[in-house]
Amino acid sequence: MTDAATELRVAMVGYGFMGAAHSQGWRVAPRFFPLDAQPVMHTIVGRDRVEAARERFGWQYAETDWRRVVDDPAIDIVDICSPGASHAEIAIAALDAGKHVLCEKPLANTVEEAEAMVAAAERAAARGVRSMVGFSYRRVPAIGFAKRLVEEGRLGTIRQVRALYLQDWLTDENGPMTWRLDKDAAGSGSLGDIGAHAIDLVEHITGSRLDSVSGTLATFVEERPLLGETVGLSGTASTERGRVTVDDAAWFTARLGGGGAASGAIGAFEATRYATGRKNALRIELSGSLGAIAFDLEAMNELQYYDATAPAGEQGFTRIIVTEPEHPYMANWWPTGHAIGYEHAFSHQIKDFVDDITRGRDPQPSFADGLHVQRVLAAVERSAATGSAWTSTAVQAEQTGQEA
After folding, report:
1. φ and ψ at 229, to 5 degrees?
2. Cα–Cα distance between 347 and 28 in angstroms, integer?
């Protein structure tokens, strides 16, 4: 048993899809990575059925009010996996109470909320309290390897970026309403839910930032059945219908700047939950003066690499299986050649977050990084609403009143 000085007691708020993934990360990371402190899965927080979630995911205690864990001196970390509408209030209270905070993406529902969260994170950092936004796909080994290739100059100057996140779980127009289709709860639809990942990965891999965007949003199905009052884990449909208040699909072009390998490049982005046949296809392609890379999350242990400096007769995309000890994170898993899965990115996220806390480093991505993504989302919404050809990502929330 680890003594108290080397424990980090965790409270997790929310126990849906992301709560399950985060629970896996907290449970597995200390068993495969040598951490300087032992994460303790102390308390899980939810509104109902929380005791069943506690038992299922392996937490010690269950709570129905997040304020109690924020006020509890036994808690060191608050992990926020609840819908976006709750992020700002919980994160700010936890940081001000001296708790380290891991918050799921997107950081908030509006730029204004995200700015308040960054201010709280900066206040907390001055006292050694750390915060991080959970863009977990940064921790996929193939993404880490792609970033390394870019940093080594293997692609040269990146001129074009293509980033798509394609899912199809909403294609049935009679599928029930969920909180992800309610703007008050989710902030936005495909744009923020999955498009945020595409934005973050492009910026993470290239070191460049989206400076301006031009976008289009579409809602294909405007009403869906409400869940009945008597529901199981998957729910049962009601005869009543609810209004969908978010986008179903988003398309936008972007100009990149801010230094980095893709400064001056143009980008094409798409996020949709209506791409029939695409289950979880997060696809990134970077085209540079010396080479190119392509990644698809549906083949997450692979990276396609094109070396434009090779002799003409030898050129072509090379399929690299990213499972070797030389690849990011992989030395701590299975023997060479053995694949890992979606859940491993959450273990890597916990490993990095705990290392940053115990070693006094500022975690990445920071709340400030999350705020920037929020500004990009808001700029896409403004562009779509006004028909503007190009919209700056630097416009402040008080000037726009736009939600993201």
Report:
1. -70, -35
2. 6
Structure confidence at residue 371 (pLDDT): 98
Angle between helical axes of 17-32 and 50-57 (0-180°, round to 10): 30
The predicted pLDDT at position 48 comes to: 87
Q: How confident is the model at residue 228 (pLDDT cuts 50, 70, 90)?
A: low
Residue with tokens 């209270």: 93
- Pick the closest to residue 138 from 332, 364, 308, 314 (CA basis): 364
pLDDT tens digit string along 323-345? 999 999 999 999 999 999 999 99
> Between 1 and 179, where is the model more confident?
179
SS (H, E, C) 234-298: CCCEEEEEEECCCCCEEEEEEEEECCCCCCCCEEEEEEECCCCCCCCEEEEEEEECCEEEEEEHH
The model's pLDDT over 245-293, given as tens digits with 9 standing for 90+, comes to 999 999 999 999 999 999 999 999 999 999 999 999 999 999 999 999 9
Helix (H) or strand (E) holding 138: none
Q: Find the largest Cα–Cα distance for the chain.
A: 66
Q: Which of 382, 376, 375 is nearest to 397 (CA)?
A: 375
How far is Cα of residue 269 from the mean position of the Cα atoms in its chain?
A: 16
Strands 38-45 and 266-272: unpaired
Give the C-alpha separation, 249 to 270, whole Å. Answer: 8
Would you state the structure tokens that stand for residue 404, as one six-digit string? 């993201």
d(CA 295, CA 109) in angstroms, rounded, equals: 28
Q: Which of 272, 233, 241 is nearest to 56 (CA)?
A: 233
